[in-house]
Amino acid sequence: MTFRREVARHHTVVFTLIRNPGIPDRRLHTLYLIPPEGSPEPLIPLVEYFIEIGRSRSLAWQKETARAVGLLVDFLVANHKYFQQQEGPQAFAAFAEALVGGTISQDGKDPSGLFWEPKSVSRATRLLQSVTAFSDWLVNRYGTKAINPWRDASVAEQIAFWRRLDNRKAYALLGYARYRSDLQEQAGRSRRVSIQRKSITSGLASVKAFPSEHIWDLLLKGFTVPGKQRSPFLFERLNIRDVLITILMHGGGLRESEPFHLYVSDVGIDPENPRNAFVRLYHPEQGAAPPDYTDPVSGKRIFGDREEYLRVKWQLQPRNLVEGRFKAGWKDLQLFDHKEKYALVHWFPSYWGEAFLAFFKLYILHCRSRHSRHPYLFVSYKEAFEGEPYTVDSFRQAHARAVKRIGLIPSKDCGTTPHGHRHAYGRSLADAGVSPIIIQRIMHHKSPESQGVYTEPTAAGIAAALNDAQQRLICSNEPWADIARRDDGLCKLLDLSW
């Protein structure tokens, strides 16, 4: 028997419009508490918390925090008779244990009625940290009692703190630029409640990359339009839009959601190579507005940002600030130009830039509607949504169908999901011997550790390296060589292979 994880019992999270005098209305993830009787009530302090944090944190963080606080509410309501006489930290410690250990006993029963499955240590820790941060804000704002107060750290915890600091120092621009007294104060304290599980150390998981030997089959056969396979025109036979998005990921290394922020004006011709596409990926909010943002009276260009441009000219919001079908995520990537705030797409191998430009011309001439009420490059072809911005979910479905058409299984473990193309891009750079610092730059990573998954040896690579080492040992004159030769002969005798 399986149970749904984190089923809401006494709360719900709604993405709703919040009105505040003197500032623009905003949509926020709002936690509503559901009493046994009566109407749901919003948790106002949490709304105030989100407003104060502003856009320094993402909508995904908002939703996660509201969810974490909601889970605590569910736990306290379900177990209120046990914690009526206990202090906040004691109840919070029980909540922490329920997160990581679940609430279901060995006989399958759960008196609380929550039926929580055990969560991973990392997820339980994130949920606990979200509630702790909100509690700290309540202490500072309203003088409430901390639900997870500080205590004196043990010697082991202080050692762990300094070790973590040493690891961060290697990638910090200013290293130990902070006052040592501040660091000593931090090292000497720890939270009273934490996840009581031993952390497990493991290496980086080998990335699952899209099999590059199938990429042209995917583009030229997988993305064929049903019923149009015999058309003499390439733009009718193929879904050019989905081909372009796939090239951006496989040959340009973009993340799955990033192509959906591109405007038509973000694609140009490379001045160094007229056959190559020159693509700029602008920050969806702070990136420079395109040249068509002009004053209606003077006709002069307005040098605003993209959030302002979308609001004034198109009555839209950046796609990373909305929820629903038009949402497209945005990761805080390293930008190439900090004035206009954009990153460049670097083609590897370079022929992908030429392929993209050729398909782009076909797409603009024959596929993209000229009457779209938005600036985005990729649009929907569906009759009910024709001309509207293309959605990430629609592309995922189209990509899965294309993968199946060429005889592959759409699966993350096989690398045949859209993100597998970015993995293939990073792996090809590493296999070509490109230096890690260059990989970091062209994949727009802020930390050099981020591309470690692409340079980490695969299981097959480790096996091949060990086999090569064994063969070198057998051919050497070292004393161990005789043992290796005898073992090799024994394996052959037993019809075993290395």
What does this structure look like?
This protein has four domains: 138 residues, no CATH class; 53 residues, no CATH class; 242 residues, Orthogonal Bundle (hpI Integrase, Chain A), CATH 1.10.443; 34 residues, no CATH class. It has 18 helices and eight strands.
Kindly report the CATH topology of the largest domain.
Answer: hpI Integrase, Chain A
Q: Describe the sheet with the most strands.
A: 3 strands, antiparallel
Low-confidence segments: 1-5
CATH architecture of the largest domain: Orthogonal Bundle
Major beta sheet, strand line-up: 1-2-3
Helix content: 40-55%
Order of helices and strands: EEEHHHHHEHHEHHHEEHEHHHHHHH
Please state the CA-atom Rg, rounded to the nearest Å: 28 Å
Question: Which structural class is indicated by helix and strand composition?
Answer: mainly alpha
Number of domains: 4
Span of the ends, CA to CA? 42 Å
- The global form is globular
Number of helices: 18
Considering the chains and any ligands shown, give keywords for the structure.
three-stranded antiparallel sheet, mainly alpha, 4 domains, 498 residues, globular, 18 helices, single chain, 9% strand
Topology:
Blueprint: E1 11-20, E2 23-33, E3 41-42, H1 44-53, H2 59-78, H3 80-83, H4 88-101, H5 121-142, E4 150-152, H6 155-169, H7 180-187, E5 189-191, H8 215-222, H9 234-237, H10 240-250, E6 267-270, E7 273-282, H11 306-314, E8 342-344, H12 351-367, H13 392-405, H14 419-431, H15 436-442, H16 452-455, H17 459-475, H18 479-493
Antiparallel strand pairs: 1-2, 2-3, 4-5, 6-7, 7-8
Helix pairs in contact: 2-5, 8-13, 10-12, 17-18
